[in-house]
């Protein structure tokens, strides 16, 4: 690998920022999981405090506050966890910026960088969509796949900082890959929301359901809210990802002399896009809303993950150079 024109110090700082981001996001996951695990007891305590407050209002000493209520430990942990998530987003951004400065190119020229960018886009989408306090439990389920992706990226897909290979030296690289990463990251939020919607509308979401998993499902937002999150994020990501595919076709015509050649990456990307189109159609069709549409969205999510890993790393095609090297 040619490292003649690479700033080794900045590349090292980029690696440190990546490692720090993973550690910070793990800490955020633990804090938010703590809040999710004990949110039920908090509601019970809140009801008790409300009753106690009604009694205290009859106190014979007006103007005297006997006890100032503090935020419960689980709520404080959740608020801290969300702040740590924002720190993790900043560290991922620093990782990408430092790698770009180290190589003097856009920092998404291989799978390691592409996954980092996609995860950052997914986290930023979560920060926008899940900004309300009642949505904090959803962060646990968003951070889990993000951390799995980052672990795979850092452990098996890591590539030393280096100039981009000749096949990718085009002004279409920053356009095509960034748009696809943005769409993929937002689709990640949509897929998680649909999976949780299916759980919320299953037997586990029934009021009489018992067990640890049922208690966790009961602490999620209501089914309509989850469905709305999935739909709105897909509405945004669908045209973005579609433009990414179109930009890739234009780049393919410049690089290979044809717009479309049914390369494995092209084919699966198109299939995933069609699945999401079917979801949006089903979501607005009577008899297909709710669970049927959610299952279609989950199929699209699985197609995106399949396209991300299997197609890039296992199959042989014109996109094979975008693997780990």
What does this structure look like?
The protein has 325 residues and is mainly alpha-helical. 72% of the residues lie in helices and 0% in strands. The protein is flat and about 60 Å long.
Feature tags:
325 residues; mainly alpha; 2 domains; 72% helix
Task: Describe the secondary structure blueprint for this structure.
Elements: H1 8-56, H2 73-103, H3 111-129, H4 136-156, H5 172-200, H6 212-218, H7 223-256, H8 264-283, H9 291-313
Helix pairs in contact: 1-2, 1-4, 2-3, 3-4, 3-5, 5-7, 5-9, 7-8, 8-9
Mean of the pLDDT scores? 87
Strand content: under 5%
Oligomeric assembly: single chain
Relative helix content: over 70%
Q: How many independent structural domains?
A: 2
Helical region count? 9
Count of β-strands = 0
| Radius of gyration over C-alpha positions, nearest whole angstrom | 23 Å
Sketch the major β-sheet: none
Q: What best-fitting shape do the alpha-carbon axes yield?
A: flat
Distance between the termini: 9 Å
Structural category is: mainly alpha
Run of helices and strands: HHHHHHHHH
Uncertain runs are: 44-60, 64-68
Pfam family, one: Cytochrom_C_asm
Subcellular location: Membrane
Keywords: Cytochrome c-type biogenesis, Membrane, Transmembrane, Transmembrane helix
Membrane topology: Multi-pass membrane protein
Short synopsis of the structure:
The protein has 325 residues and is mostly helical. The chain is built from nine helices and no strands.
């Amino acid at each position: 690998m040619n490292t003649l024109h690479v700033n080794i110090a900045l590349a090292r700082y980029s690696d440190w920022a990546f490692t720090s981001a993973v550690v910070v996001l793990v800490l955020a996951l633990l804090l938010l999981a703590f809040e999710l695990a004990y949110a039920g007891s908090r509601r019970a305590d809140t009801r008790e405090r409300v009753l106690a407050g009604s009694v205290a209002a009859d106190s014979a000493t007006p103007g005297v506050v006997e006890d100032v209520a503090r935020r419960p430990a689980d709520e404080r942990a959740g608020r801290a966890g969300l702040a740590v998530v924002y720190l993790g987003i900043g560290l991922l951004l620093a990782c990408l910026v430092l790698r770009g400065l180290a190589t003097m190119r856009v920092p998404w020229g291989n799978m390691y960088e592409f996954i980092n960018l996609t995860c950052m886009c997914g986290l930023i989408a979560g920060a926008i969509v899940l900004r309300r306090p009642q949505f904090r439990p959803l962060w646990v389920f968003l951070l889990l796949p993000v951390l799995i992706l980052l672990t795979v990226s850092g452990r098996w897909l890591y590539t030393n900082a280096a100039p981009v290979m000749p096949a990718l030296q085009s002004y279409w690289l920053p356009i095509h890959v960034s748009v696809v990463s943005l769409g993929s990251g937002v689709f990640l939020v949509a897929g998680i929301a649909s999976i949780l919607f299916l759980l919320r509308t299953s037997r586990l979401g029934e009021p009489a359901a018992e067990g640890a998993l049922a208690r966790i499902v009961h602490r999620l937002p209501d089914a309509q809210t989850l469905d709305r999150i999935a739909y709105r994020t897909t509405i945004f990501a669908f045209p973005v990802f579609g433009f990414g595919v179109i930009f890739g076709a234009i780049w393919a015509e410049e690089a290979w002399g044809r717009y479309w050649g049914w390369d494995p990456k092209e084919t699966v990307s198109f299939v995933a896009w069609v699945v999401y189109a079917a979801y949006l159609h089903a979501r607005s069709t009577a008899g297909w809303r709710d669970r049927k549409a959610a299952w279609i969205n989950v199929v699209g999510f699985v197609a995106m993950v399949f396209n991300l890993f299997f197609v890039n790393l296992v199959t042989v095609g014109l996109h094979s150079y975008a693997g780990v090297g």
